[in-house]
What does this fold into?
Amino acid sequence: MRAHPSPAMPRARTRGLVIERLADETLVYDRQRHRAHCLNPAAALVWACCDGRTTVAATAARLARELAVTPHETVVWTALGQLGRARLLAEQPAAAAIPSRRELIRMLGLGAATAVLLPVVESIVSPTAAQAASCFTAAQCGSLAPGQCTGQPICGSTTDCCVQRGQRCSAKKC
It folds into this structure.
């Protein structure tokens, strides 16, 4: 009885991304979704192998060779799951059940020292220009001297601004 061949990796998304490779991580900014992703070396290597031809087994072997990561296909599937959730793949991974990083650590019996070598994709939402504009908290607005409140938005509010009312600054609908 023959073992089933290892499936091919999905293709990585390339359109609408700004990619910056640094010494210990790869930063990916998704222009369409306004999200920034930080890939550790293991996740970046798996993403680099996402060409639609390289197999999961070959990627696991490359991880073991280049990063001294446990040569287990489950490590690759975990990375693919994270890359898929970050929408950095052109198509979703074919695996039915992709383990979480915590499940993977438990399955492989890894300690904290070796668990840091496993793939990690960290994502943050990038603020829009309006959100990135300086703003005051409601408490800061109330403590400003007259003339210091300039109609700046109240942080976290889409309707309130810090404005001068007589001799005080206070929040008011914009």
